[in-house]
Amino acid sequence: MRRTKGCAEQTREAILDAAEAVFFRQGVASTTLSQIAAEAGMTRGAIYWHFENKLALFKAMQDRAHLPKERFFDAAKLVAADDVLSTLHENTLEVLRFAQTDERGKRVYTILLFRCEYIGEMQEALARMRESEEDFSTRIETVFARVEERGELSRGWMAKTAAGAYCAAIHGLFSHWLRTEEGFDLLATGRPLLAALFASYRAA
After folding, report:
1. pLDDT tens digits, 17-71
2. Which residue from 161, 142, 133 is spatially nearest to 77, judged by alpha carbons?
3. More confident residue, 132 or 154
4. Which domain holds residue 175?
5. pLDDT for the residue numbered 1
6. Are residues 52 and 120 in the same domain?
7. Are residues 40 and 136 located together in one domain of the fold?
8. In terms of domains, do 7 and 100 share one?
9. CATH classification of the domain holding 196
């Protein structure tokens, strides 16, 4: 029984690896389950045993490469820090370091941002992405609300606008980096950007 379960998991992972490779190479809309099966060296039946359709396969691929928010952006831990802004700043730099070496994450987020048309059945995947982005925005706004409560946020900012600027900066930097196929050093470019942004947040 253990061997059967282990083999099934290996097969599932191989299918996800194949889907990731084909989606990245030719885009989601142009990819068929037959092409994924061929990439994996399997039959379409093997894919249907594990995944109902291409959307289910896409969602599983997306989940497998999910950014560990609890690791970097645990709002409860951040708001409890002695220096909330410095802790968020340091955690963000860690995210940039992590992103540069996370090969699977780079491929999957390139697919999500630049290799997929969110129409038809893929609208459900877009809704999931929006939910994830809203969850992240809520976490960050909670952090800045705490900074504001402490009187540590510059008068030029409110918690909501500070969180919005932060999310826009991170998303813009990351998506531009992927769009240019890692055409610049993410951490080296992000470090001064974040330094300037966080300096503007801190009350005098």
Report:
1. 999 999 999 999 999 999 999 999 999 999 999 999 999 999 999 998 866 666 7
2. 142
3. 154
4. 65-201
5. 42
6. no
7. no
8. no
9. 1.10.357.10
